[in-house]
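TICKET: design request
STATUS: open
ATTACHED STRUCTURE:
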């Protein structure tokens, strides 16, 4: 028999569970979904990953809905070049983007003949494939894929359209307390190169560091509810894959 006491106990249990979930999500770790192809070939549309909130300290954006309960960033730790980071876009301080950190405060970044220069030195890159295919939205594009190596030794893959759409640029000089981000799908990414849309990202806008995938599904093949297609829809080989 269900009594008023049972109902009250269940309600209290649910409230405690919600509070614990909010604390874990705010302080320790939060799941995110990849909705676009801007980080291919490393992150695919349909990837689900965990981001650690504590990696760079905490700001109001560490909390759900970014409540203005305090200013600045506490327990701050400097991000490292090459980290894959979730941040709030400066244009609205609300939308979550995920990109790779290229420049830290004081750095200069420039594109010359399609190559990325960091502090006047080209980021080393070695060709992996000349005939890869990635997505740019719903469109498939032909790219060359390279292994790039940052000055701190961080290595990752990045892809460029064979006739790159972003060949040359002026120098980007990263301001104090700001960061410069690029997508790994270099010719299909809205990132810090586009100053009116993303631009330099303030340290308070950092949400956390992307650590590893925990699930991945290909929506182009079908819906996850189509269990008879799971062998094609679910990318089992991407489960618990560390993000480089």
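STATUS: resolved
RESOLUTION: sequence designed for all positions
ATTACHED SEQUENCE:
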């Amino acid at each position: 028999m269900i009594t008023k006491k049972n109902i009250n106990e269940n309600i209290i249990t649910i409230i405690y569970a919600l509070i614990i979930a909010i604390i874990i999500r705010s302080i320790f770790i939060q799941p995110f979904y990849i909705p676009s192809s801007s980080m291919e070939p490393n992150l695919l549309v349909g990837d689900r990953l965990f981001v650690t909130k504590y990696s760079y300290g905490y700001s109001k954006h560490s909390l759900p809905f970014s409540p203005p309960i305090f200013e600045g960033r506490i327990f701050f730790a400097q991000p490292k070049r090459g980290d894959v980071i979730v941040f709030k876009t400066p244009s609205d301080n609300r939308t979550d983007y995920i990109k790779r950190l290229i420049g830290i405060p004081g750095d200069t970044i420039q594109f010359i003949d399609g190559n990325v220069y960091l502090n006047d030195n080209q980021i080393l890159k070695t060709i992996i494939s000349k005939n890869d295919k990635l997505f740019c939205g719903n469109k498939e594009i032909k790219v060359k894929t390279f292994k790039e190596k940052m000055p701190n030794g961080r290595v990752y893959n990045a892809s460029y359209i064979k006739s790159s759409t972003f060949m040359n640029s002026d120098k980007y000089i990263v301001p104090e307390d700001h960061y410069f981000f690029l997508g790994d799908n270099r010719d299909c990414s809205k990132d810090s190169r586009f100053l009116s849309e993303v631009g330099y990202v303030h340290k308070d806008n950092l949400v956390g560091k992307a650590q590893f995938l925990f699930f991945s599904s290909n929506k182009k093949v079908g819906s996850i509810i189509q269990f008879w297609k799971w062998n094609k829809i679910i990318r089992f080989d991407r489960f618990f894959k560390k993000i480089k």
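CLOSING REMARK: The domain at 4-238 is CATH 2.10.109.10 (Umud Fragment, subunit A). The two ends are 54 Å apart (CA to CA).
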